[in-house]
């Protein structure tokens, strides 16, 4: 999904840092920051990076702190990757980053473990546009990889748009699962979830 080079890529909530390390190997940025709140894990990662990338020490840095408190340099061409956390946390991080950079456009690559409809709504509110999106099926779970930019692209649809392949049985399964989930929620709270059900029904990804 990532082809473009950036000045800075942030591997946010990086845990073992595997994603950021693969980007370091591919030399996709001048600098890669690894950020996570867990200090023992960050100490291990720092050691691991020294072992594997000692020659490229200027190209990476480990930061142990809450992503919501991140101080971001005034540099153009920055990408923040946030993967493997829930929808509410992802939304909180997007809000924090937008507050930290009110006038500097940036890109995001998101892969939330759920709550993508609400995540996309927040992206739309904050002036992001779609670069690319994909449905990912891994370890028997569905994810949505959402790559967006404040510098232009296609309009974002809250349900996802170009990622859906109507003849792909896995996509049909994911659509049905998502629809069932929101129908259950709408049965308990029609005012909050009725329109979400209607949006997914309108997609009609069925065999
Ligand atoms: C399941 S791991 C995701 C790892 C990796 N991004 C992936 O997709 O495989 C979630 C990580 O988020 C980190 N995390 C949770 N809240 C955070 C916060 N407020 N600031 C920074 N990191 C946070 C946790 O410490 C944990 O390492």
From TrEMBL:
InterPro entries: SAM-dependent_MTases_sf, UCP028234. Gene3D superfamilies: Vaccinia Virus protein VP39. It comes from the Bacteria. Pfam families: Methyltransf_18 (PF12847). This is SAM-dependent methyltransferase. It comes from gamma proteobacterium HTCC2207. The lineage of its organism: Bacteria, Pseudomonadati, Pseudomonadota, Gammaproteobacteria, Cellvibrionales.
């Amino acid at each position: 999904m990532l082809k473009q080079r950036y000045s800075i890529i942030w591997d946010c909530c990086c845990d073992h840092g595997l994603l950021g390390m693969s980007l370091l190997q591919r030399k996709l940025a001048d600098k890669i920051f690894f950020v996570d709140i867990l200090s023992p894990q960050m100490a291990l990662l720092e050691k691991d990076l020294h072992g594997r990338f000692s020659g490229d020490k200027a190209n990476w840095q480990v930061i142990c702190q809450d992503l919501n408190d991140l101080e971001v340099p005034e540099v153009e061409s920055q990408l923040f990757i946030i993967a493997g956390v829930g929808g509410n946390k992802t939304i909180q991080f997007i809000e924090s980053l937008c507050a930290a950079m009110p006038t500097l456009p940036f890109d995001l690559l998101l892969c939330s473990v759920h709550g993508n409809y609400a995540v996309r709504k927040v992206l739309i509110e904050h002036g992001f546009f779609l670069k690319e999106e994909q449905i990912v099926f891994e370890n028997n779970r569905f994810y949505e990889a959402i790559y967006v930019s404040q510098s232009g692209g296609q309009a974002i649809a809250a349900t996802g748009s170009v990622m859906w392949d109507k003849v792909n049985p896995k996509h049909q399964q994911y659509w049905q699962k998502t629809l069932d989930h929101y129908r259950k929620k709408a049965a308990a709270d029609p005012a909050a979830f009725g329109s979400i059900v209607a949006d997914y029904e309108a997609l009609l990804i069925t065999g």
